[in-house]
Write a structure and sequence with these properties.
By secondary structure, the chain is mainly alpha-helical. Helices cover about 85% and strands about 0% of the residues. Helix 1 packs antiparallel against helix 2 and helix 2 packs antiparallel against helix 3.
Length: about 120
């Protein structure tokens, strides 16, 4: 039965990842809270799962003409640099503290998204 829960977590993460919203925002909490996976392991699983999702989503977005090359290239270099930095910080941070930081990030992101959604004039 546990495999079903992992598959459902993958479906949720894949749907959001395919839409470009970051499947890890759902996948990591599902793995840690519902399935009891340690924080470091959940983040590693998320990164591994992200690779094939990103390749498929990117191919579809390229096909649909949704990728702006100039903007993407400007983002890639600093993103790679800070990804490496983030890996070193995560490695040397306790799992519980890392989970709290991630939870805090999700709360701030939620507040920002709700504020933005309700302040837009339609």
């Amino acid at each position: 039965m546990e495999i079903v829960w992992y598959a459902l977590a993958g479906i949720a993460g894949g749907m959001l990842g395919g839409m470009g919203m970051g499947g890890g925002t759902v996948l990591i909490p599902l793995l840690t809270i519902l399935l009891g996976v340690p924080q470091h392991a959940a983040q590693a699983i998320n990164l591994i799962a992200f690779l094939p999702m990103a390749v498929v989503a990117l191919a579809i977005h390229f096909k649909n003409g949704l990728v702006e090359y100039k903007r993407a290239l400007i983002i890639i270099a600093p993103a790679l640099l800070f990804a490496v930095l983030g890996c070193f910080v995560a490695k040397h941070t306790e799992g519980e503290l890392l989970g709290r930081f991630f939870g805090g990030f999700l709360v701030l992101l939620s507040v920002f998204q709700f504020t933005l959604a309700f302040s837009e004039k339609k």
